[in-house]
Design brief:
This protein is an all-alpha fold. It has 3 helices and no strands.
């Protein structure tokens, strides 16, 4: 009598005769793997936070970060809301204002 082909059964693993369900075991291993990955990322973030707090230029770093976030917020709000002024003109005026008083001889390209 020929041997019957048992085929692939996803609920059976291991050596023949030893049956157990894959679903619960795999779900538990996936959950443990995810938890391990999350905790590893949290440890890494905590280590980076400690290094950041030890910096001597933390105050300057925070000020730069706040300035950057404010500029990003301004850009994002301009994308969403309609504006009556041309954005490039506003930025050019700000750049001129930051550069300080220019000499009165006129534009450099004229």
């Amino acid at each position: 009598m020929p041997a019957q082909d048992e085929g692939f059964d996803p609920t059976v693993t291991g050596p023949p005769g030893q049956r157990h369900t894959v679903g619960w075991e795999d779900a538990a291993l996936l959950a443990v793997g995810i938890a391990d990955l999350v905790f590893e990322r949290l440890r890494h973030a905590a280590d980076r936070g400690q290094l950041l707090l030890r910096r001597s230029d933390l105050r300057d770093l925070l000020a730069d970060g706040m300035s950057e976030l404010r500029a990003r917020g301004e850009l994002a709000s301009r994308r969403v809301t309609p504006s009556t002024e041309n954005y490039l003109e506003v930025m050019a005026r700000r750049a001129v204002k930051r550069a300080g008083p220019a000499d009165d001889s006129g534009p450099a390209h004229a």
